[in-house]
C-alpha cells in the first residue's frame, strides 16, 4: 500500500485538525462539519498532485495558453454517515466527479460491519476515491471495499481518511491490494477497548450529525 501522510509539514491543516479534536470547539457541530469539509479540500488538493494530466489549450480574452487538466474521470465514494462532510470537501475541488454512497454500521461491539445501502456509479477505468474521516480497526473500510470492488476494476484506488489508528492501517495492508493508495491527515496512537481512536476526536458521525438511537 502507498501511504501518504499529509500533516508531516506544518500547514493550516493543523489548525483544522486541532479544532476537530478540541472537546469544547467540537461541540459546535457546524464548525465540526466545516472543518472536516476543509480538510477534505486540502486532501483533494494534495491527491490532485499525483493524478494524470493532459495538455489543453485555453483561449483567454487576449490570447491562447497551453496548460494541463486532470485526464481521467474521478468517482468520489463516501461511507455513511461520517463521510458526508468529507465528501463535500472533495466535491468542492473535483467539480466533475461522479458520486457514490455506501452505508457501514459497526455492530457487535464494532467487531462486525453491516454494509447495506449502496448507490454508486460504474468506476471501471476511473479513479476511485473512498472517503471516511475515521480509520479505527479498518473493518468498515475493508467491508465497503470488498462490496464495491466485486466486478469492476478502477484505474486507481485512493482511500482518504482524516484520523487513522495504526491498527486500521495494518488491517488495510493485510486485506487490500498493494497498489491501493492511503491518504492520512493525522496518525494517532491506537484504539481503546471500545475500538475508538485514541486520542482521536470521539464519534465523528455523532459530532457531525447528532447522536443516534
Ligand atoms: O475502522 P472501523 O473500526 O470500522 O471504524 C471506522 C468507522 O466508524 C465510523 O462510522 P460509524 O460506524 O460510527 O458510523 P456513523 O458514521 O454512522 O456514525 C467511521 O466513520 C468509520 O466508518
Ligand atoms: O474513534 C472512532 C472510531 C470509529 N468511529 C468514530 O467515529 N470514531
Ligand atoms: Mg459513528
Low-confidence stretches: none
Give a short account of the largest sheet: 8 strands, mixed
Say which molecules are bound, naming each kind only once.
1-O-pyrophosphono-5-O-phosphono-alpha-D-ribofuranose, uracil, magnesium ion
Instruction: Just name the CATH architecture.
Output: 3-Layer(aba) Sandwich
Number of helices: 6
Based on DSSP secondary structure assignment, what is the total number of beta strands? 14
Topology order in helix (H) and strand (E) letters = EHHEEEHEEEEEEHEHEEEH
Report strand %: 25-35%
Q: What is the rounded Rg?
A: 17 Å
Broad structural category: alpha/beta
Care to describe what's here?
This protein has helices at residues 13-21, 29-48, 83-93, 139-148, 166-175, 204-209, and strands at 2-5, 53-59, 64-70, 74-80, 98-103, 105-107, 112-114, 118-119, 127-131, 134-135, 156-164, 181-187, 190-191, 197-198. It has one domain (2-209): Rossmann fold. The radius of gyration is 17 Å and the shape is globular. The longest helix has 20 residues, at 29-48. With 213 residues, it is an alpha/beta fold. A hairpin with a 5-residue loop joins β13 (190-191) and β14. The structure holds 1-O-pyrophosphono-5-O-phosphono-alpha-D-ribofuranose, uracil and magnesium ion (MG).
